[in-house]
Structures are given as C-alpha cells and as structure tokens.
Amino acid sequence: MAKTGRIALLSMMASATIFNGALAGTIEGTATYRERIAVRPGTTLFVELQDVSRADAPSVTLAAQRYALTGVPAPFELNYDDALIDDRMQYVVRATMYQGDKLLMTTDQAYPVITNGAGNSADLVLVQAAGQGLASLENSKWTAVGLNGDVLNAERQPQIEFAEGGTFGGTGGCNRFSGQVEISGNSINFPDNMAATLMACPPSIEEVEKQFFDALQKVTTYAVSGNSLVFLDEAGEPVVNFVRTP
Question: What is the C-alpha separation between 29 and 72, in angstroms, rounded?
Fold first, then answer.
C-alpha cells in the first residue's frame, strides 16, 4: 500500500475512533399506553432526550429517534454524546406517537434520566392526545404543576378554568385573566389579546406568571388523561402540565 494510502486509512480510522468515542451514552427503555387500542398501520413513535435545566428557556434536544410502531410495549434506544452531559443539569426522556402528521398520543410527564441518580433507562407511558373536543374541558378547573418541562414549585401556582362555549379564565399567580379559546378535536388556540388585570406582585411570582402567559401562546394541542391535562407546542413537547382542581 502506498504511503499516502496508509495515511488516508489511518486518518479515517482515527476519525471513526473519535466519533464512536463521543457517542458514549445510551438511554434504553420501552414506550406503551394503557388504552386497549390497536396500533394503526403507519404509526410512528418519536422519542427524545432533552435538557430541561433552564426554567426560563425552551428544552434542548440532545438525541432523538423515530421508530415505525407495530405494537406495544415498544423498545427504544437513544445514543447521545457524553460530552454534552453536565452532572449539574437535568435531563428527561419524552415520547410522542403520530399517525402521519396527526398527534395521537404523548407522554404527559417528564421521565428523568442520567443525572441525580436517575440512571439510563426509562419506561414511558403515553396518553391520548386526541381529546373529545371542547366537551373534554368544559366546566373544569386546573392547577399548573409543570412549566416548560420542569416541575413548578411556586408560591402561587397558575390556574385555569374552562366554562361552556370556550370561555376561560384564571390566574397567573398574581393577575386574573380571561378570554375565548378555540378548540377543535385536540387542537387548541389561545388568543393573543387575553384580558388581564395589572396588579404588582413580588418579582418571583411575576416571573412565573410571565413564563405561564408566554407558554399559553405556544400551545397548539392538548391531552386529557383522568385528572391530568397537558398543553403541548407545535413540536409535541409539553409546555404546561396541570392537575384537576376540585
């Protein structure tokens, strides 16, 4: 073999070693759902590893994989670059299920992995995203427990309440708000010009309220499962998680 050929081969081998060494981490698990519904032909499962460390910023996807779904529980595996991981940060796995472009199911909670003793495996449970239209939210009240992928620990948690005909109202933790929401199937659209009071509150409460109002503007779909409600953005990522308020 010519000298130049040997150099090229060694270079390729070194590059492959560096590349393979970078992808040092693997998340394994399963995805399933509780409903007795057969998996439809053409259904896909999309699984993501996300960094959700920053409460004031969108989550960052570190690894993702799409699978053709033929049955559940479905195994999955995500390979990630170990150099992207910081022991001080928080990482979660989420999943969505699609029929073409239609969102069928989604995880309605975050599944921690990698840091804080969470390990490198997760068994995900998805819930139906296709609600019963407006009727599934009418005359219900909800308290926010998660915001932008992180657990919400606030002095005053935002709440939202739906009346008949799409009328809604609530509190961001400081100010009251109200408006008319558009709901069709599992699609939901909040107005840009919601009516709201203008009270002054402590900075920590105002910051949570601002994040909550900003999150409502990102919402495109929702899912209801028992006493849980999740608002999702156009990418299918949860932006606000709620529990039903008696």
Answer: 12
Cis peptide before 246 (omega within 30 of 0): no
What is the b/e burial string over 223-242, where b = at least 16 CB atoms within 10 angstroms of the residue's CB? bbbeebbbbbbeebbbbbbb
**Cα–Cα distance, 134 to 163 (Å, whole number):** 10
What is the C-alpha to C-alpha distance for residues 44 and 139, in angstroms, rounded to an integer? 34
Cα–Cα distances in angstroms (integers) from residue 219 to residues 17, 60, 73, 189, 223, in the given order: 43, 18, 29, 7, 11
Tell me, letter by letter, the H, E, C secondary structure of 92-111: EEEEEEEECCEEEEEECCCE
Cα 56 from Cα 148, distance rounded (Å): 8
- CA–CA separation, 154 and 175 (whole Å): 15
pLDDT, tens digit, for every residue of 121-136?
999 999 877 555 556 7
- Candidates 229, 227, 224, 226; CA nearest to 241 is 229
How buried is 193 (Cβ within 10 angstroms: 0-12 exposed, 13-18 middle, 19+ buried)?
exposed
d(CA 114, CA 120): 5
pLDDT digits (tens, 9 = 90+) for 45-93: 999 999 988 766 667 899 999 999 999 999 999 999 999 999 999 999 9
Closest CA to 40 of 65, 67, 66, 71: 71
CA 111, CA 82: separation in Å to the nearest integer?
Answer: 19
